[in-house]
């Protein structure tokens, strides 16, 4: 009898032990396979093609943002990158993939205005938010209710640099512009403002983004001898224009766009860049604005990538951080509609590019600082 009781006790104990071990194993397996909540954010940048240098810079900033978010937040951020090649058609295909396959509620992009305008109807139709870091074309203002940007409209930059030219006493100007949405829009704004101030446009001519020889049009400009030449383009084409103008001994004052503030511009243009004046309408300038948020970003970026970030990096970083904050603000399912509601009711966002406040059209207003190139350095000058 005692022996039977002993056997039953052993069997019962073994069963309890087996259940306990099995339960623990099950819990451990669940723990090891547990994945924290994820917030997927689409990123549409030109990673190849003519504007690839801008896209790669923005990509680096976003990768830094993802690292910082995932180091401290429960909901992890995932950036899904797609290459627009700065081409509207390619951008549309990539956007459709981000929406249909990746199911993202928000897309950070594009850097290029033409692509942002092309993808806007698709995002609007699917109720997916687009947050453009650097797109500046005026048409984006009315591109849709789901379209936002943290870069001022060209209306601001084009107006301010034209006013500056008039204030400096320049009476006539030759305008060269990139023949795309960006170049044509900002050139038109410059022309309108300059003429309203009493100035005269003696020549206005567009050029293709792949153009390399500007000597024919520069020869015409040399004969006209304008007080000032306004180049509405990106850094590479502007650098070629400057070098070739110096070869032709053109002495006119040159004005440019924010897009030239890139170290590659200095390398390409060399001494020909000296004295060019341009507006910085972005709000990101660590040489002028210094605070802990800007300092931390600059230091972290430089530590990771071994160079100081510029306006593309700053705006890409802010745009991604804002997209994540909007998505992370709700405990419910994250949708484009919920992100739109967050942006529409957001009072302001303090980023590395300054204070960001959206108006009713999803636009922002930022101060303009005038700069020039002195001894191969970008230097702020008095307003």
Please give a structural write-up.
The protein folds into 2 domains: 38-152 and 289-356, Response regulator (Rossmann fold, 3-Layer(aba) Sandwich); 155-281, 3-Layer(aba) Sandwich (Rossmann fold). A 5-stranded parallel beta sheet has the order 2-1-3-4-5, with helices on both faces. The protein contains 12 helices and 14 strands. Helix 3 (88-100) runs parallel beside helix 4 and helix 8 (235-247) runs parallel beside helix 9. It has 383 residues and is of the alpha/beta class. The protein is globular. The termini are far apart. The longest helix is centred in the N-terminal third of the chain and has 32 residues, at 2-33. Mean pLDDT is 90; it is low at 1-34.
Secondary structure layout plus pairing:
Blueprint lengths: L1 H32 L4 E8 L6 H21 L3 E8 L4 H13 L5 E4 L3 H14 L2 E4 L14 E3 L4 H14 L4 E7 L2 H16 L3 E8 L7 H10 L3 E5 L2 H13 L5 E3 L7 H7 L7 E4 L11 H14 L5 H18 L7 H10 L3 E3 L2 E3 L12 E6 L2 E4 L3
Parallel strand pairs: 1-2, 1-3, 3-4, 4-5, 6-7, 6-8, 8-9
Antiparallel strand pairs: 10-13, 11-12, 13-14
Helix pairs in contact: 2-11, 3-4, 5-6, 8-9
